[in-house]
Amino acid sequence: MSKLFTPFRLKNLELKNRIAMSPMCMYSAGDDGQITDWHQIHYATRAIGGIDLILQEATAVEKRGRITANDLGIWDDTFVADMKKFVKLIHSLNCKIAIQLAHAGRKCEVKNEKIIAPSAIKWNENYPIPTEMNKKDIRDVIISFTQAATRAVLAGYDAIEIHAAHGYLIHEFLSPLSNHRNDEYGGNTINRTRLLQEILTEIKKIIPTDMPIFIRVSATDYVKGGLNIDETMTIIDIIKDLVDIVDCSTGGLLSPRIDLYPGYQIKFAEKIKNSLNIPTAAIGLITRPEMAEEIVGNERADLVLLGRVLLRQPYWPMYAAHILKADFIYPTQYIRGKY
Ligand SMILES: Cc1cc2nc3c(=O)[nH]c(=O)nc-3n(C[C@H](O)[C@H](O)[C@H](O)COP(=O)(O)O)c2cc1C
């Protein structure tokens, strides 16, 4: 019997299978950060294809927290009405949806925004020097994340993922390479984790107690002196009681050459799951059903996230169920297309 097609539960989030869609920016929002027809079609297609949990792309909690001018946003209350309709559409297709709350920090490319970061260190030569955040900026960002979470709850999302990876603001605080602060938000691991810890603490106060929180981390910076898996495990240990599952990605803080091969990040999900006894999601060049089955079957991770493969094969879960001989409930309209 396929393990990939067994149910999984995180608090109130009940999933039929272990396959989820990884967050992928579409850079297709309106200039005001709103959901467009593209998002409706793109996400609904994956829901019809059998994805049971969508992790919606990075959605900016502040205007200056966007990566590009066409990122999705959730920085004020006007977003809630459209998001509510969108979530309802995804639910009508028997799929759950989490929102990835994000702040780009020094990687913001939007013209005329004041770019902030823990320290005044630019990402690369093509980016401006960010303004080092003062205590008020830090407080404002914590409030922005918390208000965004309140809006996500109002819109009906099933879970929240905090984007603490890929060189964006929270990761910039976590890594010693981008955080050179001398105050209580910089220096040792506990201090560098403080912003993330405070964001999670505030969010937990306002979301329903049975709503799960995902955290996406970059388990390693792939650079000497940066985050490695051991320090990442220390960080997760600090925030363990504030999150329900760790989504294990890597990189993005700098741009070193890295070797990419099938499942190149699974080992991090496996180590965190087994060492810290917390559920994990594996991501990164997982493309074949047998590979996904192996990850879940051998308890290397609890969920398998799919990214680019879903851009070319939106009905991947249908196909995987066929290959793994698992039961799969087709939408009535598609039964005649059954394998
Ligand atoms: C077009 C595109 C957009 C992405 N946007 C995001 C994002 O919004 N948030 C995020 O955490 N990761 C983002 N990623 C990374 C993916 O979620 C995933 O971790 C990565 O593509 C590796 O998985 P894969 O080999 O299955 O594609 C993006 C990747 C792609 C290809």
CATH superfamily: Aldolase class I
Given this structure, which CATH class is correct?
Alpha Beta
Query: Which ligands, by name, code or SMILES, are bound?
Result: flavin mononucleotide
Series of H and E elements: EEEHEEHEEEHEHHEHEHEHEHH
Tally the helices: what do you get?
A: 10
Named CATH architecture:
Alpha-Beta Barrel
Major sheet details: 8 strands, parallel, barrel
The overall number of domains is: 1
- Can you tell me the CATH topology? TIM Barrel
Unreliable spans: none
Strand residue percentage: 15-25%
Measured between the Cα atoms of the first and last residue, the distance is 18 Å
Helix coverage percent: 25-40%
Shape: globular
Query: What kind of assembly state do the chains in view correspond to?
Result: single chain
> Strand order, biggest sheet?
3-4-6-9-10-11-12-13
Q: What is the total tally of β strands?
A: 13
Describe the structure.
The chain is of the alpha/beta class and 339 residues long. It has a single domain, classed as Aldolase class I (TIM Barrel, Alpha-Beta Barrel), CATH 3.20.20.70. It is built from ten helices and 13 strands. It has helices at residues 37-48, 79-92, 135-155, 169-174, 189-206, 229-239, 266-276, 289-297, 308-312, 316-323; strands at 8-10, 13-15, 19-21, 53-60, 72-73, 96-102, 116-117, 131-132, 159-164, 213-218, 245-249, 280-282, 303-306. The strands form three sheets. It has an eight-stranded parallel barrel, surrounded by five helices. A two-stranded antiparallel sheet has the order 1-2. A two-stranded parallel sheet has the order 7-8. The relative contact order is 0.14. The mean pLDDT is 97. It binds flavin mononucleotide. Flavin mononucleotide binds next to strand 4 and helix 9.
